[in-house]
Amino acid sequence: MVLALAIGAGAGAGSIVFRWCIEAFTRLFSGHTDYASVPGSAHPHMAWLGPGFVVLAPVLGGLLYGPLVNRFAKEARGHGVPEVMLAVAQRGGRISPKVAVVKTLASALTIGSGGSVGREGPIVQIGSALGSTLGRVTKVTEGRMKLLVACGAAGGIAATFNAPLAGVFFAMELILGTFSVEAFGATVLASVTASVIGRAAFGDVAFLSLPAFHVEHLAQYGLFALLGVLAGVAGIVFTRVLYAIEDACDWAWRGPEWLRPAVGGLALGLVLLALPEMYGVGYPVLEKATEGRYAVGSLLLLLVGKMVATSVTIGIGGSGGVFAPSLFIGAMLGAAFGATAAEVMPATAGAIGAYALVGMGAVFAGASRAPITAVVILFELTGEYTIILPLMLAIVLATATSRMLSHETIYTLKLLRRGIDLARPAHGARIGRQQVADVMETLPTAVPATSPLSEASGLLSLSGHGALPVLNASGDYLGVVTAQSAAQALAQQPAGAPTLVGEIAEQPPRVTTSDSLATALKDLVDASGTGVPVLDETGRPVGWLSHQGTLRALHTAPPAPPSERAPSHVPLHVSTH
């Protein structure tokens, strides 16, 4: 609890410094607090250049952050969240402390000089680096280290966007990938602490000013459902465009990496000259879209422009997040959809802004596949409960559409392109590449479902496993009986306690002979007892998988093939406990 509070305070302070750096660099490079609010204006101190100064701003910014990132922390390049996910999944939550400093400066320079990216990726990486550093200083266990990293991410999101609930769910849904009481409690403490500090500095207001919306006609739910499907497609398109342009930049660039942001900044500057609304994060433009102040053609142009501008920013080596761009794209898509619906169905379509708001959450959900976070953060932005039903409907459909079209998300695809699959063993790992059939043990003696509990407790006490398979009279598999459930049943009052094994049989995670050991290990962690039955194609138990069996696989596993060995430039972290 103390560490969570400390990390929350650090993330809150970090968000203040980060916001201040963005504002300072934006004023330096553009002469305005937020150039997107006055697109096409000249720099006050370089009026002779007119709006053409935006061609030079990304070049000058790249000359500053390019060498900084290349020299001190190459992992600070890009949008940041995938690096944190990788650190939690395969590196024990270890993140270099210098990432916090380099990411703050690099992202602030990128956004301030016109980079069309968001603040969420950087602040997640900054807060997570603080959490990891504090965990290493206090020498916590690996499990606690990962939790502290999640606390840093939650605190950063909460303070930056004044969205404490969204910070909690972002950390658990995307960073940890699991929900537990301990994780919820720790991330809430960090999130609340960071929010209090953030509100003291920025005020208790949402980072976006959106008008109130509500559903005016039941027929609108059909329109919101269709928007959800379109938003899921838009999320996938954004992901594909992002990495296609990054590939094009990789192919075209042959010079030193530290110079790439400056030279590539010229291309970004030309995009900004054509569409100055793309300068920086772009929240003023987003707010205008929710107010219905753009025509459909302009909205679609801004949508495509944001995809291109964000992709070019990331592709040339810029540092910034993709959360805000996905909200921007969703707002443009939703507003265009709402304006079209108003033309076709003027009596039932309702306010354009409602579609823009729903589109924001739906495109983010389609790109990130984080529906809970999307619902919560959009609800916190508006405080309007009346929009929650269409918001949930569209977000769920966007997530389902995205899953049908692509296995990867905008975050995991970045890692997969580097040869890292979070669902598979880490590079060079000796456990995980085997099949379950190769490491399973002999199936323990099964217990009939009609056996008395007293008899089953005797078998469990003599067994080397904490659970035994249960079969019915026909020999069909029903589940397992664990020593824990048997002891709890025997401790109840005789009048209401179960008396037969079948009454307390439970279904463990399903593990089959064809599963990879890496997949089965995750199920094994969630299982009660000390193992799970291994089922064949017909659902009949044919073996047993335990932690001891997986350790035996360590001594029988062949060396990793060259293609799966860790690259020499990637540091290997060895646990000391």
What can you tell me about this protein's structure?
Strand 2 (467-471) and strand 3 form a beta hairpin. The protein contains 22 helices and six strands. The protein is mostly helical. Helix 9 packs across helix 14 (352-368). It starts with a helix and ends in a 21-residue tail after the last helix. The strands form two sheets. A three-stranded mixed sheet has the order 1-2-3. Strands 4-5-6 form a three-stranded mixed sheet.
Explain briefly what this protein structure is.
The protein has 577 residues and is mainly alpha-helical. It has 22 helices and 6 strands.
Secondary structure layout plus pairing:
Layout: H1 2-30, H2 53-72, H3 81-90, H4 98-112, H5 120-138, H6 142-161, H7 164-176, H8 181-202, H9 220-252, H10 260-274, H11 283-290, H12 296-315, H13 323-344, H14 352-368, H15 371-382, H16 388-405, H17 412-417, H18 436-439, E1 447-448, H19 453-462, E2 467-471, E3 477-482, H20 483-490, E4 511-512, H21 517-526, E5 531-535, E6 541-546, H22 547-556
Parallel strand pairs: 1-2, 4-5
Antiparallel strand pairs: 2-3, 5-6
